[in-house]
Amino acid sequence: MKKDYLILLSVILLGSSCQQQGAKSSMKAPTRVKTQVVSTNMVDNAQTYVGMVEESKATAVSFTGMGVVKRVLVREGQAVGKGQLLAEMDDTQARNLLSGAEAQMTQVNDALARYKMLHDNGSLPEVQWVEIQSKVAQAKSQLEVAKKNLADCRLVAPVSGVIGKKLIEAGETAMPSQAIVNILDISSVKVKVAVPEAEVGGINAHTPTSIQIEAINGSYQGGQIEKGVQADALTHTYDIRINVANSDRKLLPGMVANVRFLSDGSQADGGKMVPVTAVQRKSDGNLFVWTVGKDSTAHRTTVTIGQPQGNFVRVIDGLNMGDRIATEGYQKLSEGTKVVY
After folding, report:
1. pTM of the model
2. Stronger pLDDT, 11 or 83, i.e. the higher one
3. Where would I find the beta strands (DSSP E) of 137-255?
4. Which has the closest alpha carbon to 256: 172, 338, 193?
5. What is the CB neighbour count within 10 angstroms for residue 318?
């Protein structure tokens, strides 16, 4: 009887173990894929260049005097507002000078009151009255300078923006006009591109541009263009800067950008463009692409396409602008697969 009981217990434990292993095996890790957001593309005579994102403005902030930095209150990447305290310098000497200037001011004001009584009674030579007035003016000037020196021990932001680089730490000696931090304005950015001299003539302030940023899988339409007028002596290229709105602060200085210019006679396709290799064919002959939902789940989406244009094809039906599709690694996908990208 006891032997039968032990056999039954072993069977139960074995079954429970198999169920646990089955549950673990059913929890598959997400499949890694490379994705791209559906966007418009430039065709015909469009020229493509590699550029780099730059801040729209950069402000180097520094102390006006020399001294030991007591503390730096900001970090790189931190957003700051105009007037915000950034750093402080040791103000011991400045406070001592202010105390001396205040004492001097008190002394000359007392002397002025005494001399005024004599001057009003006519018993004070005019030259002495002028002399005491001059001393009061000098003391007042020295007091104002002392107050400013003390105030200058506090470094405040002259503009709003984001801290780009912190160039000095607490305990180091700051020299006059030595940058402590850089404040970057990235509410809008510029994409800098070097264009050969033979092609720069086809670009003007309002030439349409399409900008792809792989670092954030983003697609942007460029704004007004600033064209340089002096060529690089070695490469014979001209610097072109394209203004791009960046209200969400996703574009950061240093990001690599692929820029497409529309030269004369070119036009924007205006359609939804996807890589040709991303389009697959079902067993029934219908075409589809793998789309990735907001919940990071892959779905097989039927599409209707037009004629290929280079490495891209226009999607006539089935996708919306801004949809995310899998462009690499989709061979491992099935309906409902969880993905990471």
Report:
1. 0.56
2. 83
3. 154-156, 161-166, 173-174, 179-196, 209-213, 218-221, 225-227, 237-245
4. 193
5. 18
